Structures are given as structure tokens and as C-alpha cells.
Automatic annotation (TrEMBL):
Subcellular localization, as worded in the UniProt entry: Cytoplasm
GO BP annotations listed: cellular response to heat; protein quality control for misfolded or incompletely synthesized proteins
Catalytic activity, as annotated: Hydrolysis of proteins in presence of ATP
InterPro entries, per database record: AAA+_ATPase (IPR003593), ATPase_AAA_core (IPR003959), Lon_bac (IPR027543), Lon_bac/euk-typ (IPR004815), Lon_lid (IPR054594), Lon_proteolytic (IPR008269), Lon_Prtase (IPR027065), Lon_prtase_N (IPR003111)
First-listed, main subcellular location of the protein, grouped into a coarse class: cytoplasm
Domain Lon N-terminal stretches: 8-210
Name by which UniProt lists this protein: Lon protease
Lon proteolytic domain ranges (all copies): 598-779
Function of the protein: ATP-dependent serine protease that mediates the selective degradation of mutant and abnormal proteins as well as certain short-lived regulatory proteins. Required for cellular homeostasis and for survival from DNA damage and developmental changes induced by stress. Degrades polypeptides processively to yield small peptide fragments that are 5 to 10 amino acids long. Binds to DNA in a double-stranded, site-specific manner.
UniProt keyword Magnesium, yes or no: no
Keywords associated with the record: ATP-binding, Cytoplasm, Hydrolase, Nucleotide-binding, Protease, Serine protease, Stress response
EC assignment: 3.4.21.53
Length: 785
């Protein structure tokens, strides 16, 4: 056989590798490949086949074709539709491409045949010269035989032909042609030139394939065994069911089905809910107890049956009894009591009146939650509390869809289940503490819950049926309205539960807090007696709050220490007076009546309102020689900074009116400070306070120590209205102030201030800042004249 190795056509093949001794057919369609094939038919039907590294490239370069290929003999050519050709070839020798003679119009190369043991080009085959080769050949045949047994893809004729081969090179290439190798592995094998090394790699590849095949067989057997077992169990269950029916007996599944049907019938569910329950029950019967979804359906049915679809309680509409119960449970809070009485009065006439949605707003500790509980007791409804503080997921309100793992209904559905009636009183506590995240905003879900026009068909995502919430009496609580979204706020009726006066705290302590603590500590009322002075002393010197929570803690501390004294001394009675309070609670924590006992220049007492109630806020101003810098300190927010700048501008523009040097802003630096710098402060109510302090320090006029003020300011000197007047007034009264200055537009809000407090305060109504200055600064100067 004579082969022209200087100029042979080459076809780069994609997605496969052809080994020597291998017979294979493949399709070609590229124009260059067809021309190379035609050239090969002219030149004794020999062609070089080498693997293309990236099969996506249409015209690969020399570097993108393997340097090691196979010299093949063309056995057959078959033309296919679309100008494609199918070629049958037989691999002869492994060859190395020395150089490319041409690339256009087809690839033509010069090759060198790689001589291996047993190649026909040498004419002699080695029958295993060394013992190591014989062992390697034997091992390769054994693992290939095992591979053939497990895979079932190797024909018996192929297995017999492999058994007869004693040539390492030929054996490795023949086995490679029968293995199901990845393209990368085939490319690696064609480039291994040492026959012994190549056969060793073949053995490793066969063993890896064997491990994979064995694992697949093992998994298949397990799956088949599992399926056979399930089919067998199903067949046996069906047989058992027939036998039990014949004997009049029933299995557990049948018993459960009957129990659920009885519950559904007894529950008197709405039509849509009943249809849904029966549909899910049919699904449960078809699944059987061995299905994991059966437990999910059972849980869903239990929830449907636990919701009180028709159970209601009868409202107690006796107005006199309601007033008596509310007065017994709470002192003061007339606005709340009056609203509940109005609701019951209208309910007496209009039986179909929907429940109001009240929002009790006030500082902590004023009894908002206990008010809601008392309302439930008054009208005879079941009470359920839902805490919304920290809720960030809409699914907490609407529930999760059943497709989620661990899905559950929302808090509204859970509250109905807990209440056991469809018309309970539900308290949505801390509604201002909600916030949204990527899972949705719970406030958006509450829009439907708290809308009396929509909540008759509220849909929980888990239950997938409509819930009628129209008969529920919703009451919400909040410390502040600022963080509640406006659409949600629009659906609620706002009732302010303000802070208590000292007189109200005294009555609350005597009628509620002290008896409650004595009862909790199982002490008779006459064993520990609080004097009136002791109660007032605790209120004045150990609490500084709008509510009574801290007051109750101090009373509890006194009770505990009194019990300890009784146990130690053996006495039967303890009277709590001022000295006893000082002994048990330590030094006074607050001294309101000692605040600002003397008139000072540049120090003004402002009135502030926070989420925790009213408070006094002293503002200090100092001046020094400088270049007119204005410095603000005290953790002021943006609004208070704007108030300071507006006040400064007003004083500059009206300096002539107040006998202030018109160049003060050029020659003096001004420092405005609000003490307690670690506490952030903000809000539109400090404008008049800052102007008064500025005028005081620039005119060297003291400010009356017994005056407190509140109000925002405009650049023209007009005093603007503020919020929270009641809380601010109570805070000023607690601080020992006897004169307050308020904006003209807030005069109407004085109705909310207790008369006992107003009777002890002088209230100055200010429409312009001149009125504020005339009443706040000492001396006979009349500003504004």
C-alpha cells in the first residue's frame, strides 16, 4: 500500500473522534469538506480526519484543529437530501499533522504516521513481549467484559473480537470505540501516543463508567422496589376495604371521612365554604393516608371547621349598665366612654349598624389596651388582642397561600378561631409600629380589614374563601398618628386618650392600682394603708409620665417592701406615709416644683409633645463677641432648626422695634442650645420660645420663670397653631408653671384640658409674638407699640 503522505485532504470533524481500527459513518455538509472528500476519492480513497476543538466554528484555523488525527480509508459514500453526504470510513493509523499545505478551497496537509507496536506499516505484531503487558491486556479485557455485562450496549461479536486481540495499541483503540465517552475524553485519548499508557487510561475510564452504571442500576432497583411495594400496598388496601365492607367494618380512613362529613353537616357552613370543604374531602379520600398531601388537606379542613362562620354573642345594649361598668374599670377618659355609649344607643334603634373602627391614640401607660378589654366586657363580646408591633409581612394579615411549605392563615383568621364567634371585639394593638419590606406592607392588607364597606368579603390567602368581618368591633391603639399611612388613618375614628393630671392619677391609684397590687400579693386591704399625702408624693417625686405604668411599678415596690417589713417584724398593719415612701423608694427622682425658681436672661421654658406625652423643654441662648455666627446644639431636628433660623431672621428684621442694635448680627455670635443634647428633639412648636430667648439676651431682659409657652412663628411675627395642647398643658402644670402662652388658633383646644388644671393656670392667648414678649419678659417695656 502506497500513501502520498505529503499532500492528503483533511476534514475537520465536529462532535466526534475516530480511532484507528474503528469503522464509523458521519455526515458532512460544509463545502470545503465535500471538496476534500472528492479529492480523497481521486487519491486512492485516503483522507485525514481530525477533531475540531470548537464545534461551533464554521471555518476553523490551523490552531483550532487537533494536531493528532486518524488516517482513514473511505468505504462508502451516500448522498442525502439538502446536499449533505454520509461517509463510511475505517480508521487505519494515528497520524500527526506536520504542516498545512493549503486551507482554501479545502484543507490539504502533510502527515507523519505515528508508529506503534503492531501497526501494519511495520508488518509485525508483538504478541506480548513482557509479562507486564500480558497482565495489562488481561486486566483491560476483564474490566471491558464486566462493562459489557452491566451496560448491555456491547454486542457479543464485538466482545469476542476483543478477546482475540493481543496487541496493546490495537486493544486500547478498539475498546475506546465501544465506550460511551465524552468528547473531551475522546480527544484526550487520541492524543496519548504511548500504547501502554493509553491502555492504562482506558482501564481507568472503564472503571469510572462501571461505577456510574452500577449506581444507576442500584437506584433503578430501589425505585422499582418502591413502586412495586406501593402497588402491592394499594392492591392489599383495596382488598381489605372490600372485605371490611362485607363484614360491616371500616378502616381509619373511612372513619375519618365520616367524622369530617358529620362535622361539615353540623357546622352549618355558608354554601361556598361547604362546597369548598366537600371538594377538599373528596381529594383527601382519593389520596389515601400514605400521601404526604393528605396531612396538608386535613389541616386545611380543620381550619375551615374551626372558623366560627355563624356563632355569635348577643350584645348587651343596656346603657346604664355600660356606664357603670366603664366607670368601675376606668377613671376619667370621658371621650371614650361617651363614644361607646353613643354606639350602644344607636344600636338599640338600628340593629344592623356596623361596628365603628376606633383608634385610641395616646402616650404609653394611659390604659388604651385595658379600655378595649373593658368595652368588650361592657357589651358582652369575646375579646381578642392582635399585637402588630414589628409586623412587616403582608402574609401575617392575609395568610400564606397553600402552595407554600408550612402555610398558615393570617392573624385575622386566627383571631376569629380564638374568639369562637364571628362578632368579637378585636384589638389591633400598636398599629403605628408596623412597617413594610420586600414581602409587602401589612398596612395595605389592613385597608380592607378596617373598611366597613369591604370587609364583609375579606379573603384570606390560605382559606381561599370569603370571611365576613363586618360584625367585628375593631379597636386599634397607637402612640402617635405620624407613622400610620393616611389611607389607613382615614378608615378609623380617632379618639385621643391624653395623659392624666395629678388629681386623676391620685384617684386611679386609690381606686384601681393599690387594690390591684394588694390583690396580686394576696394582702388584705387593711394590712397596708396608703395615706393621701404618700400617694401624691409618689406621683410628684417618683414619676414623670403621662400614663400610670411607672406609678404602678412604684406602688408595687412599696407594697413588696411593706410585706417584707411585716414578715420581719410580725406586725399586722403598715401605714404608708411620706417618710415611708422616701425610705422605700430612696431619694426623690423628680423635682418639678423647683424648676426655674428665678428669672433668668436668655432662658425660656417651652412646651413640647412627644409619643410619650407632654414635657417641658427649656431653651437657652447666649451671645458673645464674634462675626455673627448662629450655632444650634442639642440634637435638634430639621423642623426645630428651621424654627431657630426663622426666629433669628424675625429678630434681625425687627431689631429697631425691640431697641436692639441693628448690627448685632455682625458683631456678636449667637448660640441657641436645648439641654439634654443626647435626646433627639423635633417638632413645629418652638418658634416663639426661641424668639423670646433671643430678644431676652439681646435686650438683657430676664424671662419670667413661671411662664411656659408653645407656638410656631412666621417671618411676620404671627403665632401659628400647634398640636398636643392638652398634653403640653398638663406637663407645664406638673412642672410648677402657673402661666402658659398658647396660639390664638389653639384656644378651642382648651376644652380638652381638665378644669381642675385650668383653674390653677393663667392662660395667655397670643396672636402675635409681641403678646408673647409682653407676657414673658420682666419690666414695663411694651413691645409692639
Amino acid at each position: 500500500m502506497k500513501i502520498d503522505m505529503q499532500n492528503l485532504p483533511l476534514i475537520p470533524i465536529r462532535g466526534l473522534t475516530i480511532f484507528p481500527y474503528m469503522v464509523m459513518h458521519f455526515d458532512i455538509g460544509r463545502k470545503a469538506s465535500i471538496m476534500a472528500l472528492e479529492e480523497a476519492m481521486i487519491k486512492e480513497q485516503y483522507i485525514v480526519l481530525s477533531t475540531q476543538l470548537d464545534e461551533r466554528i464554521e471555518s476553523p484555523s490551523e490552531d483550532e484543529i487537533l494536531k493528532i488525527g486518524t488516517l482513514c480509508s473511505i468505504k462508502q459514500i451516500l448522498k442525502l437530501p439538502n446536499n449533505n453526504i454520509r461517509v463510511l470510513v475505517e480508521g487505519l493509523y494515528r497520524v500527526e499533522i506536520i504542516k498545512y499545505n493549503s486551507i482554501e478551497p479545502f484543507y490539504s496537509v502533510e502527515i507523519d504516521i505515528i508508529e506503534e507496536e503492531g501497526n501494519e506499516v511495520q508488518g509485525n505484531e508483538v504478541e506480548g513481549e513482557a509479562e507486564g503487558n500480558e497482565v495489562l491486556i488481561k486486566l483491560a479485557k476483564n474490566v471491558f467484559r464486566e462493562y459489557a455485562d452491566y451496560s448491555g450496549v456491547v454486542a457479543n461479536e464485538a466482545l469476542s473480537s476483543v478477546e482475540e486481540i493481543q496487541n496493546i495499541a490495537k486493544l486500547s483503540d478498539i475498546i475506546c470505540s465501544y465506550l460511551n465517552l465524552r468528547q473531551e475524553e475522546m480527544q484526550d485519548m487520541i492524543q496519548v501516543l504511548n500504547p501502554k499508557e493509553r491502555l492504562e487510561k482506558v482501564i481507568v475510564l472503564i472503571k469510572n463508567e462501571l461505577e456510574m452504571i452500577k449506581l444507576e442500576v442500584e437506584i433503578g432497583l430501589k425505585v422499582r422496589d418502591s413502586m412495586d411495594r406501593m402497588q402491592k400496598e394499594y392492591f392489599l388496601r383495596e382488598q381489605l376495604k372490600v372485605i371490611q365492607e362485607e363484614l360491616g367494618e371500616f378502616d381509619e380512613n373511612e372513619k375519618e371521612d365520616k367524622e369530617y362529613k358529620a362535622k361539615i353537616k353540623k357546622a352549618k357552613l355558608p354554601k361556598a365554604v361547604k362546597e369548598k370543604a366537600l371538594y377538599e374531602l373528596e381529594r383527601l379520600k382519593s389520596l389515601g393516608s400514605f400521601s404526604s398531601e393528605g396531612g396538608v388537606i386535613q389541616t386545611y379542613l380543620d381550619w375551615l371547621l374551626d372558623i366560627p362562620w355563624n356563632a355569635t354573642t348577643k350584645d348587651n345594649l343596656d346603657i346604664k349598665n355600660a356606664r357603670k361598668v366603664l366607670d368601675e374599670d376606668h377613671y376619667g377618659i370621658e371621650d371614650v366612654k361617651q363614644r361607646i355609649i353613643e354606639y350602644l344607643a344607636v344600636k338599640n334603634i338600628s340593629k344592623s349598624l356596623k361596628g365603628p373602627i376606633l383608634c385610641l391614640v395616646g402616650p404609653p401607660g394611659v390604659g388604651k389596651t385595658s379600655i378595649a378589654r373593658s368595652i368588650a366586657n361592657t357589651i358582652g363580646r369575646n375579646f381578642v388582642r392582635i399585637s402588630l408591633g414589628g409586623v412587616t409581612d403582608e402574609a401575617d394579615i392575609r395568610g400564606h397561600r397553600k402552595t407554600y411549605v408550612g402555610a398558615m392563615p393570617g392573624r385575622i383568621a386566627y383571631a376569629l378561631k380564638q374568639a369562637k364567634t364571628k362578632n368579637p371585639l378585636i384589638l389591633l394593638d400598636e398599629i403605628d409600629k408596623m412597617s413594610g419590606n420586600y414581602k409587602g406592607n401589612p398596612a395595605d392588607a389592613l385597608l380592607e380589614v378596617l373598611d366597613s364597606e369591604q370587609n364583609s368579603s375579606f379573603r384570606d390567602h390560605y382559606l381561599e374563601v370569603d370571611l365576613d368581618l363586618s360584625q367585628i368591633l375593631f379597636i386599634t391603639t397607637a402612640n402617635s398618628l405620624e407613622t400610620i399611612p393616611r389611607p389607613l388613618l382615614d378608615r378609623m375614628e380617632i379618639i385621643e386618650v391624653s395623659g392624666y393630671t395629678n388629681e386623676e392619677k391620685f384617684n386611679i391609684s386609690k381606686k384601681y392600682l393599690i387594690p390591684k397590687q394588694l390583690k396580686e400579693h394576696t394582702i388584705e386591704d387593711k394590712s397596708i394603708i396608703f395615706s393621701d399625702n404618700a400617694i401624691y408624693y409618689i406621683i410628684d417625686h417618683y414619676t414623670r409620665e403621662s400614663g400610670v405604668r411607672s406609678l404602678e411599678r412604684n406602688i408595687a415596690a412599696v407594697v413588696r417592701k411593706s410585706i417584707t417589713y411585716i414578715v420581719k417584724t410580725g406586725k399586722n398593719k403598715v401605714t404608708i406615709n411620706v417618710n415611708t415612701v422616701m425610705k422605700y423608694l430612696g431619694k426623690e427622682k423628680y423635682t418639678f416644683d423647683k424648676v426655674l425658681k428665678e428669672d433668668k436672661i436668655g432662658v425660656v421654658t417651652g412646651m413640647a409633645w412627644t409619643a410619650y406625652g407632654g414635657d417641658t423643654l427649656p431653651v437657652e441662648v447666649a451671645t458673645m463677641k464674634g462675626s455673627g455666627k448662629l450655632q444650634l446644639t442639642g440634637q435638634l431636628g430639621d423642623v426645630m432648626k428651621e424654627s431657630a433660623n426663622a426666629g433669628f431672621s424675625y429678630v434681625r428684621s425687627n431689631s429697631f422695634k425691640y431697641n436692639i442694635d441693628e448690627n448685632f448680627y455682625k458683631e456678636r455670635d449667637i448660640h441657641i442650645h436645648v439641654p439634654e443634647g443626647a435626646v433627639p428633639k423635633d417638632g413645629p412648636s418652638a418658634g416663639v420660645t426661641m424668639i423670646t430667648a433671643l430678644v431676652s439676651v439681646l435686650t438683657n431682659t430676664p424671662v419670667r420663670h413661671n411662664v411656659a409657652m408653645t407656638g410656631e412663628i412666621s417671618l411676620t411675627g404671627r403665632v401659628l397653631p400647634i398640636g398636643g395642647l392638652k398634653e403640653k398643658t398638663l406637663a407645664a402644670y406638673r412642672a410648677g408653671v402657673d402661666t402658659i402662652i398658647i396660639p390664638k388658633d389653639n384656644e378651642k383646644d382648651l376644652e380638652k384640658v381638665p378644669k381642675t388644671v385650668l383653674s390653677k393656670l393663667k392662660v395667655v392667648i397670643a396672636e402675635h409674638v409681641d403678646t408673647v414678649l409682653n407676657n414673658a419678659l420682666t419690666g414695663d417695656i411694651k413691645y409692639g407699640n
